[in-house]
Design brief:
Elements: H1 2-16, H2 36-50, E1 56-60, H3 61-67, H4 72-79, E2 90-91, H5 97-104, H6 114-118, H7 120-127, E3 130-132, E4 140-142, H8 155-158, E5 159-163, E6 169-173, H9 178-196, H10 200-229
Antiparallel strand pairs: 1-2, 3-4, 5-6
Organism: Shewanella algidipiscicola
Transmembrane segments: 206-224
Main location: membrane
């Protein structure tokens, strides 16, 4: 049963994002999980722009607060946007799945593992690649994920990109400059990279200690072997 649950947790996001575009140049996200301020900003933007539809339901508010150096009071006041949620709750979205499926054609997927499924560069590029397309239900499409079903929720920050005859894009109407928007997208991507593997930094740090121990143990074992076998050789 445990193996089945793990398989489902991994498979569902994979299926939800399986229809992405191929042969698209991906920009480097350059995520730094040691940049706690960036992760805090990413959490803030995700909660206020994305959490209405998308959950990160394999995370808990109090765990995220601890990992990102956020007090529980600040987590309650600034980052918890679901009405009635408690700091020990899972980070679920704020709309019923049935309603979301009716409005968008399919229920928006949970995004806890999206960075692990797709990769941080894909996610970073995807959030920068919406453009005007009147044929789509929400008036936008995406070069990384053609025929995307979701609206461009960050459009007020980035502006609207319009495809020119030469294939280039011109973006106008955003509150942020291109550089500022890139940072916002990098912050959100960083938060989702963290969400997909909250213990990555701890695991990597522990790995160096383990390698150090094995190196020292190898030296001791080698010297011990020489001591035991010195009379034989």
């Amino acid at each position: 049963m445990k193996k089945l649950l793990i398989a489902l947790v991994t498979l569902v996001p994979s299926l939800a994002f399986a229809a992405g575009g191929a042969n698209v140049h991906l920009e480097s996200a350059n995520i730094d999980l040691n940049d706690t301020e960036s992760l805090q900003r990413g959490l803030d933007k995700f909660q206020h722009y994305c959490a209405g539809c998308h959950s990160t339901q394999y995370q808990r508010y109090n765990r995220v607060a601890e990992d990102l150096d956020i007090s529980l009071d600040d987590m309650r006041d600034k980052y918890m946007v679901v009405e009635g949620a408690k700091v020990g709750d899972l980070m679920e979205n704020s709309i019923p799945e049935v309603d979301a499926a009716k409005w968008f054609g399919a229920a928006p997927p949970d995004l806890t593992l999206v960075a692990r499924v797709r990769g941080e560069d894909w996610l970073y590029t995807y959030l920068k690649s919406f453009y005007h397309d009147e044929s789509r239900p929400f008036g936008v499409n995406n070069t990384v994920f053609p025929s995307v079903a979701m609206p461009h929720v960050l459009q007020d920050l980035q502006g609207l990109s319009v495809k020119q005859e030469d294939g280039s894009f011109v973006t106008t109407g955003g509150k942020l400059t291109a550089e500022e928007y890139d940072q916002v997208v990098r912050d959100i991507t960083g938060f989702l990279v963290y969400s997909g593997d909250p213990v990555k930094l701890e695991r990597e740090s522990l790995g160096w200690w383990v390698m150090g121990f094995l190196f020292i143990f190898f030296i001791v074992a080698y010297l011990l072997k020489k001591e035991y076998w010195k009379d034989v050789h």
